[in-house]
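Structure in, sequence out. Go:
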């Protein structure tokens, strides 16, 4: 099996400026904070495609954006009772150094990032135990099939981990097997619905610490 903790091994200094939006100055949080930190760009400032156009800039040819998420919880009334539903959207952002024609960078203090403790909490929030993938899951839904364009392992792994986190948050207390559903594109046509199982159990026969394993429905 593959431990996801071994996949994310790039060193990040939490005392450098935290990633933030170029226009609003708002610092990104949670999974977005992790993704943009690991990009290791030369500036902490990020923009959406619309924001780049709004400020008269353009993306340098060949540069690729990074997908980040946006959660919204609109509240509506169902049979007289308030009900909230979480809506997940994602879009891409580009670093200031991936663009040209933008206004000059604002100054930012070197030490205004999250503290080391807060940075760690932002990464592990929602994932209480180590997470592992079986080889079958990695080969089928993380590795990019030969000839498939517009896909990369990092993006596919991110989709899988994010939907795993979402499934865990929606699970019932005491539930040790959680269904995980997501769309994966393994050809050059369209994405298809994939159903996996996240199971919580002992990390190993000799190690009773709990761990989460993501596997195919027909795997033991």
């Amino acid at each position: 099996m593959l431990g996801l903790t071994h996949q994310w091994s790039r060193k990040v200094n939490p005392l450098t400026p935290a990633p933030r939006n170029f226009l609003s100055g708002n610092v990104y949080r949670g999974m977005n904070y992790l993704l943009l930190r690991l990009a290791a760009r030369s500036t902490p400032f990020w923009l959406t495609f619309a924001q780049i156009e709004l400020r008269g800039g353009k993306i340098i040819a060949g540069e690729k954006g990074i997908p980040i998420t946006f959660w919204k919880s609109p509240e509506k009334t169902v049979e007289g009772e308030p009900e909230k539903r979480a809506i997940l959207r994602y879009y891409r952002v580009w670093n200031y150094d991936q663009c040209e024609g933008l206004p000059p960078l604002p100054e930012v203090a070197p030490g205004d990032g999250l503290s080391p403790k807060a940075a760690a909490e932002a990464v592990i929030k929602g994932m209480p135990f180590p997470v592992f993938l079986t080889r079958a899951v990695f080969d089928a839904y993380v590795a990019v099939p030969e000839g498939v364009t517009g896909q990369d392992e990092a993006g596919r792994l991110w989709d899988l981990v994010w939907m795993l986190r979402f499934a865990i948050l929606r699970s019932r207390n005491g539930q040790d097997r959680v269904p995980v559903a997501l769309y994966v594109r393994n050809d050059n046509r369209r994405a298809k619905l994939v159903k996996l199982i996240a199971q919580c159990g002992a990390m190993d026969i000799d190690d009773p610490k709990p761990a989460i394993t993501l596997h195919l429905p027909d795997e033991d």
